[in-house]
């Protein structure tokens, strides 16, 4: 297969992506300069930093630490507030064929509903990503581990929200959890799920200083990078096997090469997001991985992602 004949295009419902890769919310996407840089790269679009109704400073520093296998963070949702990201999204969605995914993460159900009302009333006409999985807010649980709370917020949301909504999920670890979250999500007109957020409340220890490596929450924080890829693949696969076909999947977790994207798509991802490795490498990662993925597809004789999406074999 000639590499020039290979397409890395993808879609979520009616939204078309020229490239299957996006940044993950939180990484190099907090300012309009950073977001514009992603839009001007080979990525298929950008995701905005998860917004709260008002600007937030986030947790105290140091709140992120890179390690040879990835990173740990407890950022605590530092962001410029919904109005800032909504304006950017309204101005840039669909421009030059690029998608802008608007991510929101209220600290309470009411905050989420307030932001969804504002988005409903706005001129933004792209995908909204409701983040129910931030592990770094002191004193708050990750909503998506409480299945009835997810049902409750979605019931309230779809009473008024008519735009296209995705849900950012945390990793699940038990097969019953996959069944339970899928049972809830399948009852709603959701456009996609994004699986996974970081593995919450990990701990990295520095044996030399005999200390934790980040300050908030006594050192506990979300893990990303190599630590999380098998868990991410398992979540994409398990959800693809359980969710109704109209719900697309964004695969996020441990992607740093063409092979990693290939594996996520094989497990069922429609689109992928890159977090930790994008943080390390910046926008050139999208062209490097596009080339690596195209080479793998050429070797295997695949011309589009549809040729192998979800076709993981079992033994
Ligand atoms: C953070 O700002 O703490 C990270 C956001 C997230 O994990 O959802």
TrEMBL record:
Pathway: Pyrimidine metabolism; UMP biosynthesis via de novo pathway
Reaction equations catalysed: (S)-dihydroorotate + fumarate = orotate + succinate
Domain Dihydroorotate dehydrogenase catalytic: 8-297
Pfam family, one: DHO_dh
InterPro entries: Aldolase_TIM, DHO_dehydrogenase, DHOD_1A, Dihydro_DH_chainA_dom2, Dihydroorotate_DH_1_2, Dihydroorotate_DH_cat, Dihydroorotate_DH_CS
Record GO biological process: 'de novo' pyrimidine nucleobase biosynthetic process; 'de novo' UMP biosynthetic process
Major subcellular site: cytoplasm
Gene Ontology MF annotations: dihydroorotate dehydrogenase (fumarate) activity
Subcellular location: Cytoplasm
Top-level EC class: oxidoreductase
The enzyme's E.C. designation: 1.3.98.1
Cofactor: FMN
Coiled coil regions in record: none
CC terms in the record's Gene Ontology section: cytoplasm
Assigned keywords, A-Z: Cytoplasm, Flavoprotein, FMN, Oxidoreductase, Pyrimidine biosynthesis
Top-level taxon: Bacteria
Subunit structure: Homodimer.
Family (UniProt): Belongs to the dihydroorotate dehydrogenase family. Type 1 subfamily.
Protein name: dihydroorotate oxidase (fumarate)
Organism: Lentilactobacillus parafarraginis F0439
């Amino acid at each position: 297969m000639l590499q020039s004949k290979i397409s890395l295009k993808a879609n979520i419902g009616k939204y078309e992506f020229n490239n299957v890769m996006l940044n993950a919310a939180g990484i190099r996407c907090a300012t309009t300069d950073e977001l514009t840089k992603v839009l001007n790269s080979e990525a298929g679009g950008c995701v905005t930093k998860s917004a709260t109704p008002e600007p937030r400073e986030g947790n105290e520093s140091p709140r992120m630490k890179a390690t040879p296998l990835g990173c740990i963070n407890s950022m605590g949702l530092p962001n410029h507030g919904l109005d800032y990201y909504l304006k950017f999204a309204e101005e840039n969605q669909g421009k030059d064929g690029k998608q802008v995914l608007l991510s929101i993460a209220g600290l309470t159900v009411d905050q989420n509903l307030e932001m969804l009302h504002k988005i409903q009333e706005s001129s933004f006409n792209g995908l909204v990503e409701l983040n129910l999985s931030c592990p770094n807010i002191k004193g708050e649980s990750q909503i998506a581990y409480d299945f009835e709370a997810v049902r409750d917020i979605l019931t309230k949301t779809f009473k008024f929200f008519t735009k296209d909504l995705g849900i950012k999920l945390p990793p699940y670890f038990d097969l019953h959890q996959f069944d339970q979250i899928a049972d809830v999500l399948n009852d709603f007109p959701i456009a996609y799920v994004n699986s996974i957020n970081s593995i919450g409340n990990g701990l990295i220890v520095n044996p030399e200083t005999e200390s934790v490596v980040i300050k908030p929450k006594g050192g506990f924080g979300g893990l990303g990078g190599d630590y999380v890829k098998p868990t991410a693949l398992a979540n994409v696969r398990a959800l693809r096997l359980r969710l109704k076909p109209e719900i697309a999947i964004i695969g996020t977790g441990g992607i740093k090469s063409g092979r990693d994207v290939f594996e996520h798509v094989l497990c069922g991802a429609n689109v992928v997001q890159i977090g930790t490795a994008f943080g390390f490498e910046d926008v050139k990662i999208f062209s490097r991985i596009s080339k690596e993925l195209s080479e793998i597809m050429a070797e295997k004789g695949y011309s589009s992602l549809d040729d192998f999406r979800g076709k993981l074999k079992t033994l």
